[in-house]
Amino acid sequence: MFPMFGRISLSKIENSIGGAAAIIAVFSIFTKLLGLWRDRLLSSSFGAGEILDAYLASFRLPDLVFNVLILGAFSSSFIPVFLSYFQKDKEEGWRLANATLNLLFLIIFILTILIIVFAKNLVPLIVPGLSSEAQEVTVKLTRIISLSILFFIFSNVFSAILNSFHKFFLYSLAPLLYNLGIIFGILFLTKTELGVSGLAWGVVFGSFLHFLIQVPGVLKLGFRPQFLFSFLPGVKKIFLLMVPRFLGLAVNQVNILLTTIIASFLVSGAITIYNLAFNLNSVPVGLVGIPLSLSLFPILSQAAADGENNFFKKKFLETLKQIFYFILPLTVVFFFFRQEIAAIILKAGLFTEKDSFLTGQTLGYFSLSLLAQNLIPLFSRAFYAKQDTKTPVLAACFGMFFNFLGCLYFGKLMGPPGLGLAFTLSSFLNLFLLFSFFKKKGFKFEKEEFFSPLLKFLFLSLLIIPLIVFLKVLFAFLPVFLETLIIVLIVLLFYYFLSLLFKIEEAKKVKDIFKLFYA
């Protein structure tokens, strides 16, 4: 049985958008904390040098295959089609899930073999600026890490099934176990005869745990594995819906590869600095934008299938305002504490003061993209719910192309921080295009429904800036960690009480979410 929270069952919490988002966010906090510990272990053990550059670069080929074919494309195409089948005939719904899973596994298995065979030829194209020794390490780690995507095939199909039924508990727990697997590799496997290869085997172990934890959930829902290879009409529809996402994500992944190539020609450790700053910046996205968008997606898909456009619009706008409310003060916090965050999390062992400073500078530019990064998943899933996968791809193509040009210019001009600036500018271009297409595609709402809450929450967020400046002077005598923790807690509580003072609806919803757990 699933755990109980107070007198309210987990199932009831999951069926509420706020409750589901809270479950995802709570586990995301633990996952991100583990991720930060993982990054600290990596940075302190290896420093910002070619070894860690090689490790991070070794994800590029497996990520290219997996992120393009599965991670970003699958669930957004699978959930609406699966739900439409399951509602008509449960058995046909499970046949559709099995046929899709088996076909995807066959495709990925073949591509994994190709990565292993041709890694030695492809890796030098990805990190041409690294030394030949570092490239050899990258080849070895790439071959091992590519095995992880075989487990991720199963786990991501299972995740999509769980999300379809508003089951977010095991889905949210899976990334936490993935990080635990990587940490196990850092702490223990690298200390064996495996050496640096232990990092990669930790990734494989983590992906296995990511898959294994979700098995009981899908079995409980009624899924049973079948050796079924059939191009059912639903399978064809899923793949047709995935095609535009393939193209858009291919552009995205190629752009990441190009960013890696550019970074390999910058200062030693640039790949590491860029990736670590990006991971730090992704924490608020994982806590706000992703949980809210994921929990909303099945509801939007159901509303679209039922033709309930008013309900669709209402739920979208509610979530939009919630993202505004939560992410704007976090943007202020991350920007003003960029150096402190980098130092607290990463500055240890072989990770030097200079490495920490460059990471903080890069994080500062990344943090300015937080609003765009949290809204893009929401807008994209609104299109996906209507089975329109082309429009978000078009916006992403423009954004990613601009990012590549920005990396070429700002990377050469500013080093790793320039890559963060290019990313931020391209993210807002992507968001602007999504917003424009949103209106043209029939998702119409008045400008004040978007801009009024944005300006209101922006005003409240700006009010905390003088408080941050004052508190930094007041608590300057404290150690950096304690100073940062105290100030951040004070300013976020100040923002919350300001919200209550101004009778902000979203502040009241925070109380409602807690009531779900402790009623």
Layout of SSEs?
Layout: E1 4-5, E2 8-9, H1 10-14, H2 17-46, H3 50-57, H4 60-71, H5 74-88, H6 90-126, H7 132-145, H8 148-164, H9 169-187, H10 197-212, H11 215-221, H12 233-264, H13 270-306, H14 309-336, H15 338-346, H16 353-367, H17 370-385, H18 390-414, H19 416-440, H20 447-474, H21 480-501, H22 505-518
Antiparallel strand pairs: 1-2
Helix pairs in contact: 2-9, 2-13, 3-7, 3-13, 4-6, 4-8, 4-12, 5-6, 5-8, 5-12, 5-13, 6-7, 6-8, 6-12, 7-10, 8-10, 8-11, 9-10, 12-18, 13-14, 13-16, 13-17, 13-19, 14-16, 14-17, 14-20, 15-16, 16-19, 17-19, 18-19, 20-21, 21-22
Can you walk me through this structure?
The chain has 2 domains: 17-46 and 268-519, no CATH class; 50-246, no CATH class. It is 83% helix and 1% strand. The protein has helices spanning 10-14, 17-46, 50-57, 60-71, 74-88, 90-126, 132-145, 148-164, 169-187, 197-212, 215-221, 233-264, 270-306, 309-336, 338-346, 353-367, 370-385, 390-414, 416-440, 447-474, 480-501, 505-518; strands at 4-5, 8-9. The protein has a two-stranded antiparallel ribbon with strand order 1-2. Strand 1 (4-5) and strand 2 (8-9) form a beta hairpin. Helix 14 packs parallel to helix 20.
